[in-house]
Amino acid sequence: MVPDISVIAPVFDEEGNVAALAREIALAFNGRPYEMIFVDDASRDATLARLTEMKSELPTLRVIAHARNAGQSRAMRTGILAARGDIIVTIDGDMQNDPADGPALVDRLKAGGEALGMVGGRRAKRQDSLSKKAASRIGNTVRRKLLNDQSDDAGCGLKAFRREVFLRLPYFDHVHRYIPALMLREGYTIAYLDVNHRARTSGRSKYTNLRRLYVSMGDLFGVMWLNARARDPGPTAEV
């Protein structure tokens, strides 16, 4: 059966999380036509081996491996290009996103019609350090003011959108943090739902506040340039 939904999980050095995450995704989407695609971004630990072992247990699991580490956005795009579902659900590989929230995002996306480009998760009660939460709050405020992207939690990896719409967007490294702004640029609307957030119990974060600040400044100005260069043709019709 061709799936309607493809759940994409980019992972890097998450050997302690991937098996449990795959099982939770299977439980959350049980009864729906779905597939899950884990993209291993050249992990240095046993992540790929754990995923390969899980394929015999979970028939909906597909595993794609990068030869070289290329980052979260590239891994996400690799999974989306390989996806067979019309609807994409992205989820972080660190178990902090709750797969049980995924179906609600899908249902909201379907109910919104073709004009609704994305439904994002909004972490209602973040289970992160005070410094990480403070840095995110500042970053979200600055980005929302400069891009007017309507997002107060761009860092939440749990999102649902249509595959076709995503592939219309310009791609660049770290694009996963700017999907709301790029969706709005193309004339789509976006929506948010509160989702669960869990503390990391295995592995460690791949980002630091300083590293995120360093890369985000260039990305932010780049998206501002893209928005400034957009031109809206209005309604189109074939005659």
What can you see in these coordinates?
There is one protein chain. With 239 residues, the chain is of the alpha/beta class. The protein has one domain (5-228): Spore Coat Polysaccharide Biosynthesis Protein SpsA, Chain A (Alpha-Beta Complex). It is built from eight helices and seven strands. It has helices at 18-28, 47-54, 72-82, 102-111, 130-147, 163-168, 179-185, 209-228, and strands at residues 5-11, 34-40, 61-65, 87-90, 116-123, 159-162, 189-195. The protein has a seven-stranded mixed β-sheet, with helices on both faces. α5 packs parallel to α8. The chain starts with a strand and ends in an 11-residue tail after the last helix.
Oligomeric category? single chain
Instruction: Report strand order across the widest sheet.
Output: 3-2-1-4-6-5-7
Q: Would you state the CATH class?
A: Alpha Beta
Q: What coarse outline follows from CA principal-axis ratios?
A: globular
Task: Report Rg.
Answer: 17 Å
**Category from helices, strands and their pairing:** alpha/beta
**SS strand fraction:** 15-25%
Low-pLDDT parts are none
CATH-defined fold name:
Spore Coat Polysaccharide Biosynthesis Protein SpsA, Chain A
Please tell me the CATH architecture by its name.
Alpha-Beta Complex
User: What number of structural domains do the residues give?
Assistant: 1
Average pLDDT reading: 89
Helix-strand topology string: EHEHEHEHEHEHHEH
Helix amount, in percent?
Answer: 25-40%
Would you report the number of β strands? 7
Q: Total helix count?
A: 8
Cα distance spanning the termini? 37 Å
Largest sheet features: 7 strands, mixed
Supply the CATH superfamily name.
Spore Coat Polysaccharide Biosynthesis Protein SpsA, Chain A
